[in-house]
Amino acid sequence: MNAAVRATVRVGIYTGAKVYFVHEGYQGLVDGGDNIKPATWESVSMMLQLGGTVIGSARCMDFKEKWGRLKAACNLVKLGITNLCVIGGDGSLTGANQFRTEWSELLADLIKQGKITAEEAKRSSHLNIVGMVGSIDNDFCGTDMTIGTDSALHRIIEVVDAITTTSFVMPDCVCMRVRVCVCVHLCAHVSVRACVCINIAVCPHSYLALVTALACGADWVFIPEMPPEDNWEEHLCKRLIAQRERGSRLNVIIMAEGAQDRKQKPITCDQVKNVSGGITQSIELGSRMGVEAVMALLEATPETPACVVSLSGNMAIRLPLMECVQVTKDVTVAMAEGRFEDAVNLRGKSFQNNWNTYKMLAHVNPPEVKSNINIAIVNVGAPCAGMNAAVRSAVRAGLIQGHQMLAIHDGFDGLANGQIEPITWAQVGGWTGKGGSNLGTKRNLPGKNIEQISLNIAKFNIHSLIIIGGFEAYLGGLELVTAREKYEELCIPMVVIPATVSNNVPGSDFSIGADTALNTITMTCDRIKQSAAGTKRRVFIIETMGGYCGYLATMAGLSSGADAAYIYEEPFHIHDLELNVVHLIEKMKTSVKRGLILRNSNANDNYTTQFLYNLYSEEGKGTFDCRMNILGHMQQGGTPTPFDRNFGTKMGAKSVLWLTDKLKECYRHGRIFANTPDSACVLGMKRRSLIFQPLTSLKEDTDFEHRIPKTEWWLKLRPILKILARYEAVEIDTSEVAAMEHIIKKTGEIKGGKI
């Protein structure tokens, strides 16, 4: 929430608006006085890393009454406030819309009571409203992610990892109860056979439970939107027994608050424990939403309906507020009426995809009749968090399809040397939460080993190939496709899954591993800044990874409140460095006496991190001192974030399903033969969808010398970084103007425009 507050304040001030804090929610709006204070640029410094909300929040019964809204309207009119940005749940946003709807009536009553003049009413003739959803529950329809959800997921996954680790080592653990954050309660019941039942007490909507189940590879999840079938107790027991027979040492069951059966009878954690006992991924999001909220207010007219800023894929979009509220309420009605399929569909495509992926990996058993298809998996390039989640998902999805899955160790070298072996369901158990690459990985390309690779593909009877990795995986895939003309054995379907901290693979807006690296950088920057809490006038110069791709430096700059982020894609010169130094010198004259500068590792051959440190140290003499940090390989390691776990899980499963269909297309005359461009693809996220794009079609959009795509979506976010750092005369790309979209279907069509 604080990131959204900071962005709203600073962008509002940048556009020339006078911005106010309303403390203690609607109660502060009703009470007025010192609860409504002007906000300054400095007043939102050093708040990005703080949880909760620094301006406070409170439930307000007074605002539900007309007399309370009348007082709130009077306070706003007296201060000349005509734009209101509300961060909260559907109740808060519904209240804001009601306030706006009856605004004219409230003004008329205030004039009649003599509390405001006709001139004051004229100056405040209409009220613009924009909402941002702040809720860990992620239960607001129309957005993929609400502010606070990712932080809650991190806390939950930390506890789940700790519980499961303990259970692996001590299978006779009895019972533990863990409390996470303020609103999330976890209750773990561990039987003598190490079955962990984790009850996530959130709300009747169960995004957190479902995504936690995917992120930790749970065996079962109970959510109210999709109750289990009748006789679920028997099905659960069979499921856990089957897992044990496959060699699983641990079973994990996740429960959402409000879990129920098909007859709407509550299912409790104790009930599940008794049944099973005898058997056994937000700061950057807040900043982007805050910016979009201000722009929505400034562009609003009296005819513009109240909107809510939502996230769809990697895009901030605007949706009609009351449409989203209505659909959110429809979910509850659908569950109450037993229309569970409708409830899941109303929750949106993101929720549906999570549910379908979970169902496939947790509830479908491998068939007894095998397909005689062999799918091989290889990791290529530098290791990153989330690789193992993708491998686990691909292996289990393949086994469910009846295929034999083969593990290739140590990259393309292992494929050339015959380091290939079958991999089973049990072998990938627990891989979701492990960082690095359990299969082993190398940067070497097929190159000179192409002939040996083709021989081993024939020897091990490999029918299709999944390549998981970074730019080397993309290049290696291209080399294999090119070599098809000479080696017929390479005429098999292939898919490349982007996995690299650099986020530089063409064909995908995001790569597995980048989110974990970004979290590590942001957390480190926060700690570095906090280390100077007792030291005034200090500037930190920090180098991030990424090669020539400036994604990490840019997004970490947004998340940590950097004063500048130097990257290769945006050339900079000595004049730019001079402006940055002057900017910091001026900043030190304010109450904010700290600076943060990020530099991508290959941003410039001559303006190195050491050069920047020397320059800032020399020019800042007498005003500030400098410290330099090169973060290094710590950005590659660590436990995967919930986003990377789930992203890898969905990518792995989707790749196997695509290969299964492609193999059917390519089966000719008793053998597999695939030589068309669309038989070797990159699976990537583009804007709002996971799509497959032929490797050869991506060559035109690739800067091979610098190992980056020629088109990078996140470059349009860089002006926001400069605005939030208080630079003047920043040019913003307005070629893509956000239009109001709609989510309620009418007469079978979805109305609305595009971004």
Automatic annotation (TrEMBL):
GO terms for molecular function: 6-phosphofructokinase activity; AMP binding; ATP binding; fructose-6-phosphate binding; identical protein binding; metal ion binding; monosaccharide binding. GO terms for biological process: canonical glycolysis; fructose 1,6-bisphosphate metabolic process; fructose 6-phosphate metabolic process. Pathway: Carbohydrate degradation; glycolysis; D-glyceraldehyde 3-phosphate and glycerone phosphate from D-glucose: step 3/4. It comes from the Eukaryota. The keyword Transferase applies. The keyword Zinc-finger does not apply. It catalyses: beta-D-fructose 6-phosphate + ATP = beta-D-fructose 1,6-bisphosphate + ADP + H(+). Residues 1-174, 198-274, 374-658 form the Phosphofructokinase domain. PROSITE patterns: PHOSPHOFRUCTOKINASE. Its cofactor is Mg(2+). Keywords: Allosteric enzyme, ATP-binding, Cytoplasm, Glycolysis, Kinase, Magnesium, Metal-binding, Nucleotide-binding, Transferase. GO terms for cellular component: 6-phosphofructokinase complex; membrane. Pfam families: PFK (PF00365). This is Phosphofructokinase, muscle b. It comes from Oncorhynchus mykiss.
